[in-house]
Amino acid sequence: MYPDLYYLFRELLGIEWPLLHHITTFGLSIALSFVFGMYYLRKNLLLKESLGYFSSRKDTLVDRQKQAKVLPSKALGMIALINTICGIIIGKIFYLLENGQDLQPGLTMFSFSGINYYGALTGMLLSSAFFCYLNNIRPLAVFDAAAPGFLLSYCIGRLGCHISGDGDWGLVNNLPNPISWLPDWLWSYNYPHNLIRQGSIIKYCDWGNYCYVLSNPVWPTSLYEAIICFLLFLLLWRLRGKTYQPGFITGIYLIVSSLERFLIEEIRINPMIGELDITQAQLVSIILAITGVVIIGLLRFSKNRRLT
């Protein structure tokens, strides 16, 4: 594992620049996920604007009375700002609710650690919907445009979790690798030099505070999620040019992303909710999946199932 870029550059390129200690691989992955997410959101918004989802030009999909006050692609800066603020706040609240019993001393609402993905997603969806309402923008069309970018952002973030060894791994997996061609590190992994300094100390280690390795290998769930979400991103990106009714891509996103998260939670370390025997993420996954099914069901039984 590479908790910061210093060790990554030293191992791969033989370069030792002390300043690279200040750039963590997890922090870099978050920054890259934001950049790529916004990039693909803008591309999708421009495509939908050209198809007439937000304007009132002749032969487009929006009545003059429903014309957006501002095109979404022109307001990305404001959308990104309010989404970031609301995503962090709601994501932190979800994290504290989920891990309240196991929090380390000093970890509070105002610390920089611990943000729940579904909480952040909820905060961004609510803030985006409110912004769209104020500016007469069709929120489902915006959510459709954002869905592929959400999956790619999540993929990059999870990849950062894996490379840094931030503790977002699975349960202990001592089972033998059943597939001869599958690398052992893809089946189970012990995360040497992990970011959270968990496990036993590595002898003769010169990695500063990152000289720990898990005593027992675990499922590399963050890597699994990165791979799956990248494939799901390709699926939604392939659908981007289709003129489905607003909300169809959102419904697909809610179903496939929720199914992925629900299943991965079965081998992932997370506290259970009381006697329900499910995690908070699984409960939210069920709610979002049902929401996705309802959205697609409503679109299916509407008069025009496919826009032309």
Automatic annotation (TrEMBL):
One Pfam family cited in the UniProt record for this chain: LGT
EC numbers on record: 2.4.99.-
Principal EC category: transferase
Entry-linked InterPro entries: Lgt
Domain of life, source organism: Bacteria
Keywords: Cell membrane, Glycosyltransferase, Membrane, Transferase, Transmembrane, Transmembrane helix
Molecular functions (GO terms): glycosyltransferase activity
Transmembrane domains' residue ranges: 20-41, 75-95, 115-134, 141-160, 222-239, 246-264, 284-302
Coiled coil: none
Signal peptide: none
Similarity comment: family membership: Belongs to the Lgt family.
Full protein name: Prolipoprotein diacylglyceryl transferase family protein
Species this protein is from: Niabella yanshanensis
Organism phylogeny: Bacteria, Pseudomonadati, Bacteroidota, Chitinophagia, Chitinophagales
